[in-house]
């Protein structure tokens, strides 16, 4: 029940982020502003998340995890309600920053709390459960925003998400106190870990670059691949989201039973393969297979990497989860930027091969890391 409560909180937080993509036309119409201006509301949320998550991880490293979760959810609820209530664009921008800061506080703390309430052998699966809330949001948030927003406008949608946040906040109050463990380890070991942690964070960032180079422009790419009409493209995006949920679950299971290192290597290899063949996938069934493989592999790597990070410094899971979340969001922004350069400089046909090259480079960086105890086999 504790893990489900934390996963539900992550789902609500992530829905508040992803739903904006489905609400873009509605917000543009109601506020009479450009799509680019509406898009900056999402950028403000992402930047606030990426900047605040690591800072918060350091400032709250000795706090009870339940306290961090409740404060993060409160900020998210306030920011989301503010976005729904204010009438000015500047006010909405400020509210999205507050909501993003709350999300940057909640999600890493949820991962840290999940690791703390399960046995060691279940750590990766616990992380996967939390990330599963995020993966589920990618499946449901955009359709919810698009369909419900058309009927009611964007303000009731955001208010409804805030109301769900209140329900989760009440449920979080039932969690026991979760205190961070005390610091351990020699200075020499800590210095060695610092270098490994930095490399793993770079790997996490590069994985997001490889994924979001394609994902940002996946709709025009699928149209170029002759996937069909708009309904077919929507179905393929839904398939991607469902595959991501399945991949996240598989990643947690494999990391615990097979080892994080093998799981990460397999995931990166499959990301490279699935994106490399995209330009040659022309039959609809082949496209479905490629999109499903891409979704599974892209989400399978996340719980494995985060579990490996937390294993390095088990006394500071919250701070490491925050740093990893920041690296992922930075990779999203960089991937989107690089994808735009590829599209403008060449064409959407080159998005897949470029992403595959990034995945291969990431695999080389990861393979160069020294083998860490417990990463090549199942957890004790």
Which helices and strands, and how do they pair?
Elements: H1 2-31, H2 35-59, H3 65-85, H4 89-116, H5 123-152, H6 154-172, H7 187-215, H8 218-224, H9 230-258, H10 260-276, H11 284-312, H12 317-345, H13 351-367
Describe it for me?
There is one protein chain. The protein has helices at about 1-30, 35-60, 65-85, 90-115, 125-150, 155-170, 185-215, 220-225, 230-260, 260-275, 285-310, 315-345, 350-365. By secondary structure, it is an all-alpha fold. α1 runs antiparallel to α6 (about 155-170) and α11 packs antiparallel against α12. The longest helix is centred in the N-terminal third of the chain and has 30 residues, at about 1-30. The radius of gyration is 20 Å and the shape is globular. The model is unreliable at about 185-190 (pLDDT under 50).
Could you name the key traits of this structure?
380 residues; mainly alpha; 82% helix; globular
Give a quick summary of the entry.
The longest helix is centred in the first third of the chain and has 30 residues, at 2-31.
The backbone outline, from C-alpha atoms, is globular
Which parts are unreliable, with pLDDT below 50 for 5 consecutive residues or more? Answer: 184-192
**Largest sheet, if any?**
none
What is the residue-averaged pLDDT? 81
């Amino acid at each position: 029940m504790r893990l489900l409560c934390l996963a539900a909180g992550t789902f609500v937080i992530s829905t508040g982020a992803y739903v904006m993509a489905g609400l873009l036309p509605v917000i543009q119409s109601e506020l009479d502003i450009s799509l680019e201006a509406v898009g900056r509301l999402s950028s403000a949320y992402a930047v606030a998340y990426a900047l605040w998550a690591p800072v918060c991880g350091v400032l709250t490293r000795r706090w009870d995890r339940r306290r961090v979760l409740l404060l993060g959810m409160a900020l998210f609820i306030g920011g989301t309600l503010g976005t729904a209530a204010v009438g000015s664009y500047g006010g909405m921008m400020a509210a999205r920053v507050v909501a993003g800061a709350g999300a940057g506080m909640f999600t890493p703390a949820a991962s840290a709390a999940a690791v703390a309430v399960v046995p060691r052998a279940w750590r990766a699966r616990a992380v996967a459960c939390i990330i599963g809330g995020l993966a589920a949001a990618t499946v449901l948030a955009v359709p919810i925003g698009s369909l419900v927003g058309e009927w009611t406008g964007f303000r009731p949608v955001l208010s409804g998400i805030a109301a769900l946040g209140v329900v989760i906040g009440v449920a979080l109050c039932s969690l026991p106190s979760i205190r961070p463990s005390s610091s351990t380890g020699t200075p020499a070991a800590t210095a060695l870990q610092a270098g490994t942690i930095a490399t793993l964070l770079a790997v996490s960032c590069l994985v997001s670059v490889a994924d979001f180079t394609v994902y940002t422009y996946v709709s025009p790419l699928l149209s170029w691949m002759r996937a069909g009409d708009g309904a077919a493209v929507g179905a393929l995006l839904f398939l991607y989201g469902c595959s991501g949920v399945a991949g996240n679950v598989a990643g947690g299971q494999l990391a615990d039973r097979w080892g994080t290192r093998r799981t990460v290597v397999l995931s990166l290899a499959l990301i490279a393969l699935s994106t490399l063949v995209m330009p040659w996938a022309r039959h609809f069934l082949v496209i479905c297979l490629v999109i499903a493989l891409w979704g599974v592999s892209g989400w399978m790597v996340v719980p494995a990497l985060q579990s490996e990070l937390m294993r390095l410094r088990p006394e500071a899971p919250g701070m490491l989860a925050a740093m990893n979340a920041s690296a992922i969001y930075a990779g999203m922004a960089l991937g989107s930027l690089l994808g735009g350069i590829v599209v403008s400089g060449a064409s959407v046909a080159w998005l897949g091969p470029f992403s595959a090259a990034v995945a291969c480079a990431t695999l080389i960086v990861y393979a160069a890391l020294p083998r860490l105890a417990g990463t090549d086999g199942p957890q004790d």
